[in-house]
């Protein structure tokens, strides 16, 4: 009986101890810590997944020589091993019912990037391991990155200049020298086209619009404009001749490449960006080429329906749009929060406004895109064209989707977040601070702008952080108000007024959508989807960290001043 009482007493003590631990709040601390740890692990896992699948694309992989037999036909190819997976015999036979060779229980298949899309399509193909007769890693196989038709794999067997074979003791060094020559000529052509020719075309268009404006004003004196136009056309003819001469020099050389099946194909060196022999490169040389490929990805324009090349226009457009959006949303959000908290008489109407602001934060983004298209583009933009650009009509200037309307639409989308965050910051400022400022003779406006707003600046930056995080990844509204698959020019150039807010632009989020879902070559585009997604995540992290650092400094400054 004594033993039973002792056991009951121990159980009662354990229950009381457990109940005390539960009431102390420690379980919620552990639960919160576990949730934070899970969130951090999820973010790190996402970034790791994007990095592994995206950054590996830029490493110079070895090229295999593979001979395989399928349905009695032998094929010899060069290619990179892009992916490897295993499937069951049943799944294999369902997909290949006419297959006439013994099949193992587990079938391994390889995705090989064969390149040479123009001479030997397709440039990606699946091979079954049991079909491979022989494979090797030849040291002299060459990978050529081109401006069109993707990569080329083969053996360099000759170089031609104007159709004549070039004799050289070191064919590879000669090839590299001619690639550098064509690269320098290509840079000269690009500089002329994007600089002088683009500037002249811009001025010619300005002259055309000025003529049209004078006609609308019933002015028919064009002698000064015609003289200027004649000089510009003369300059254009000179530069056009320079471009023609450079293009003739650019198209002088070709490289002869032997494919794995023995065929010889000629590749214009004018289309070659770079070439390397991955199987004979050291680790350090591969690392140098890897860094160069990463840099080219960040600084080059896209090619081949966005499945090749870089993302510089999309990177530039994303950062510029986010900065413009932040500059637009912060004043509007802060002013609205100031009015609701400091000036408006608190009552049912103000409470209704707060409810509406909170509900706006949950509206689907595509709705904002439709509103932006109808209100900003057609109504405001069309009115601006009627008032200030009648000479350009019927072609729209501001009455068409562009950078400014995309920034305003995203500012409207994110302004509820800034309002709520700023108002919460204003609420936390003690009333005694306001009363002390007023007691010292400051006006209400001086109190707000010199005392209250600086103390609430950390909350304002918190709202901006949340706004940037949401706006940078939005795609749906941008498809209606300014973003395009491929923008002909950047929103910033050397022509007055230098920042062209009416131009369409590229965006990393839309670029991911386009490459991932609209690409004609899915296998070639898949690594770029991961790499671009990683870049977008890193941009958001950098922008947020910048704002967080500024917020922490402001918090520390005003905490010290209050104490």
- Helix share of residues? 55-70%
Alpha-carbon distance between the two ends: 64 Å
The CATH superfamily of the largest domain is: MetI-like
Report the strand count. 13
Radius of gyration: 32 Å
Number of domains: 3
SSE-based structural type: alpha+beta
- Provide mean pLDDT, rounded: 87
Based on the coordinates given, report the CATH architecture of the largest domain.
Orthogonal Bundle
The CATH class name of the largest domain reads: Mainly Alpha
The quaternary organization reads as: single chain
- Helix and strand sequence: HHEEHEEEEEEHHEEEHEEHHHHHHHHH
Please summarize the sheet with the most strands. Answer: 6 strands, antiparallel
Please give a quick description of this structure.
The chain is of the alpha+beta class and 563 residues long. It has helices spanning 2-23, 26-55, 89-95, 171-216, 223-250, 283-299, 312-343, 348-360, 365-388, 403-428, 431-439, 444-471, 478-481, 508-517, 522-562; strands at 64-70, 73-88, 106-113, 124-128, 132-136, 141-146, 152-161, 164-165, 253-258, 264-268, 272-276, 302-303, 308-309. It folds into three domains: 64-140, no CATH class; 156-281, Orthogonal Bundle (Helix Hairpins); 316-562, MetI-like (MetI-like fold, Orthogonal Bundle).
